[in-house]
Amino acid sequence: MKVEAGEYETLRRWAAEMFELTFEPLPNLKPEDHPISVLDATAAGAPARARQGLAMMIGDEVEMTAAFSPEEVARLDSHLRALALPTLSEMRLRVMKAVRRIAARGAIRSDDEYFLIRNAVEALGDKSNAQEFWRLLGDYELRSSTS
């Protein structure tokens, strides 16, 4: 999944909201170590790198919701829609479209795509199409280790 500059702020707000909604409070987490604070610090000096980090964060958050019930997804969708943010269902669809594009191409081209496929395969567990994703991951790891 790619985050464009024009959608960065909206998706940053989405990721921040999802973090608060889906993670247990971390009492020992220093404010400067909060993922959104780290993202903001990165964005100040390297906006393109921050967009990559945000895409990974979104992929992680989508993966973490894979086992949510339809009722829980509907509740989150309603909450996010009320904040004028994309719904969880919309973000899941966006992530899966990116995964399908990579699978159809038959090759992973970047670390960003690697982590997107890695999240997808971990969410799939032992399902049959997970084998193809594992093959793509292995091929990319082999190419990366020789370059």
Topology:
Blueprint (H helix, E strand, L loop, with lengths): L7 H15 L12 H11 L1 H18 L5 H13 L5 H18 L5 H14 L5 H17 L1
Describe it:
The protein has 147 residues and is mainly alpha-helical. It has one domain (5-146). It contains seven helices and no strands. Helix 1 packs parallel to helix 3. The longest helix is centred in the middle third of the chain and has 18 residues, at 47-64. The model has no long low-confidence stretch (mean pLDDT 91).
Keywords:
about 150 residues, globular, 7 helices, mainly alpha, single chain, about 70% helix
Assign the structural class, choosing from mainly alpha, mainly beta, alpha/beta, alpha+beta, or little secondary structure.
mainly alpha
- Largest sheet composition: none
Q: What would you report as the Rg, rounded to the nearest angstrom?
A: 16 Å
Number of helices: 7
| Percentage beta strand | under 5%
Spell out the helices and strands N to C.
HHHHHHH
Taken together, the total number of domains comes to 1
Distance between the termini: 24 Å
How many β-strand runs? 0
Principal-axis shape equals globular
Q: Taking all residues together, what is the mean pLDDT?
A: 91
Regions with little confidence, pLDDT below 50 for 5+ residues: none
In percent, how helical is the residue content?
over 70%
